[in-house]
Design brief:
- It is a single chain.
- The protein is an alpha+beta fold.
- The chain has one domain: Arc Repressor Mutant, subunit A.
- The chain is built from 4 helices and 2 strands; from the N terminus they run αααββα.
- A two-stranded antiparallel ribbon has the order 1-2.
- Strand 1 and strand 2 form a beta hairpin.
- The radius of gyration is 15 Å and the shape is globular.
């Protein structure tokens, strides 16, 4: 029987979702990741307390900003930065036409 598991944690998925949609509602992030709103709020709090993102109120909405150059937390990956994860999973901006 196959067991369900993934290479990335829910923390990584929430970080990627917030980086992709910085103005998303918590419920939208939760739906994207496939976890509850409560779990999403807990993860956002963890990420903010660890310095991986900041939350700013803009009117009645919250806007997320990823903090660049933060190392991974696990000792075997601490020499790498979270930016590298974002580079793998987030779309890169198009290069302007050099003509």
């Amino acid at each position: 029987m196959a067991r369900d598991w993934t290479f990335l944690s829910n923390h990584a998925h929430v970080l990627l979702a917030a980086a992709t949609r910085p103005d998303a509602l918590t419920d939208e992030l939760a739906t994207t990741v496939g976890i509850t709103r409560r779990a999403t709020l807990s993860i956002l709090k963890d990420l903010e307390e660890a310095g991986y993102l900041t939350r700013t109120r803009v009117g009645r909405r919250t806007r997320y900003a990823i903090t660049p150059h933060r190392p991974f937390r696990h000792p075997t990956a601490a020499h790498r930065e979270v930016d590298e994860l974002l580079d793998i999973f987030l779309p890169r901006p198009s290069n302007p036409d050099p003509r």
